[in-house]
Design a protein that fits this description.
Two copies of one chain form a homodimer. By secondary structure, the first copy, chain A, is mainly alpha-helical. In chain A, 64% of the residues lie in helices and 8% in strands. Chain A is built from six helices and three strands. A three-stranded antiparallel beta sheet of chain A has the order 1-3-2. The longest helix of chain A has 18 residues. The interface between A and B is large, with 48 and 47 residues. Chain A binds a DNA duplex through α1 and α3.
Chain lengths: 131, 131
DNA sequence: CATAATCTACGAAGACTTTACTACGAAGAG
DNA sequence: CTCTTCGTAGTAAAGTCTTCGTAGATTATG
């Protein structure tokens, strides 16, 4: 009965940038998204509009057309998409090894003591949850 | 003095697939790469050839033309590229948070008890190394 | 009301990705 | 030596990604 949204595809670079804005801001108009994007890089209003239209077609965002200025929101929560991306890279580049992925991440960006503590705690929690 | 190879770009999906073969096999001819790729999916010989030519232009692989059948090898070790990819995703999708990345990876593919132990061990080693 | 501002839709250019066909030279087999 | 096999190079088609210009409708403003 419930017509589930089909699995949206892996977002591209530009799409991910826009999703990031939507996750941070919540539902937003093209104008709002554009204002934030434009702070970081030159981009025309219609470019953002077009991206959002395409993303709506792909199912990456949903849009509410009740108002004249349509309101867009990410169709999946940040965590869901992050899981997809992590799983995808894990399989494509790390042969499924979470350890290798973590090695890569730590090598790419040195972690602080606090972050390491967080990571350890995360593993603890996770073990509790699965056993 | 040393004319360093410029930083090669992030490999695409198809490129990563070929790099994976080269990392596993070491230097190889087009034919050897093709034989392995063709086991997993239908692909013409010249397709693999073309990919390798393009990858050589981009600096992702180096080629030795001394023999008639050129020999290709990854220009960067697997770990180096993994670090790039992990760092790239970390920044693009996880706002630099290694913790979030690990959460995503663990959610995407449940880790076994053994793997969790490995991860913990990795963090220990890493802390020793940095303090 | 007339004009300006705001919005969506459409179209399309240019770059990149992936795939495969064709051409042609070099090496190997009978 | 002739014919087949193996190899590279070049060309290009089809698809995707990213960007932006133009058009036309709707709303706000003087």
């Amino acid at each position: 009965m419930s017509a589930k949204t089909p699995q949206p595809p892996r977002p591209t670079d530009a799409e991910l940038e826009i999703l990031t804005v939507l996750w941070a801001r919540g539902p937003a108009t093209v104008r709002e998204v554009h204002e934030i994007i434009a702070q970081r890089k030159p981009a025309q209003y219609t470019t953002v509009l077009k991206m959002l239209q395409i993303m709506a077609e792909k199912g990456l965002v949903r849009r509410d057309e009740k108002e004249r200025a349509h309101i867009y929101q990410a169709s999946r929560p940040r965590e869901w998409t992050q899981r997809q991306l992590a799983g995808d890279l894990l399989q494509r580049a790390f042969n499924g090894s979470a350890k290798s992925l973590l090695v890569g991440a730590l090598a790419a960006r040195k972690a602080s003591k606090e972050e390491l503590a967080e990571l350890r705690k995360l593993l603890e929690e996770y073990e509790k949850g699965t056993q």
